[in-house]
Amino acid sequence: LSDPDGETAATLIFFAPTPEQAERFARALIAENIPASVPWWSGQHVYNHFDQIIERRLLSTQKCSWECPRYQGSATLRKGQFPRTDSILKRAVHLDIHPLFTDRDVDDIIAGIRKVARVVL
Length: 121
Prior knowledge:
This protein is mainly α. It has five helices and two strands, in the order βααααβα. Helix 1 packs across helix 5 (103-120). The mean pLDDT is 88. This is DegT/DnrJ/EryC1/StrS family aminotransferase. It comes from Candidatus Segetimicrobium genomatis. It holds the Pfam family DegT_DnrJ_EryC1.
C-alpha cells in the first residue's frame, strides 16, 4: 500500500469468531479471486506443523535448543503445547498485500471482504 509517510504493508490478518468461520471465510475469498489462507492450515511458520523440529531432526550439529551449550535449561516442543496460540491461528484469515497492488486492487479486495463477511459472519 502506498503511504506518503512511508509505511508499508505486507500482510493483512484478521480473526473470525470460530475456526470454521475462518476456513469458510478464506475459501469464499478464494472463490472471489482473492488469495487467502488460514495460517493454521497453511503450514507456514506454525510450530505444530514442524515435525522435523518437534522430533529434533535438525541439520545443525549443535542441536540447539535441546542440547545447546549456551542454554542450560530444559527445552521441549510438542504439538498442542501452546493452546492459546493454536486457537488464534485457527481463527486467523491471512491475505498477502502485494506492493504492486493498485488502489483499485485494494478497493476490490475490500469489497470482496465485505461481501464475504455478510455471508460468512
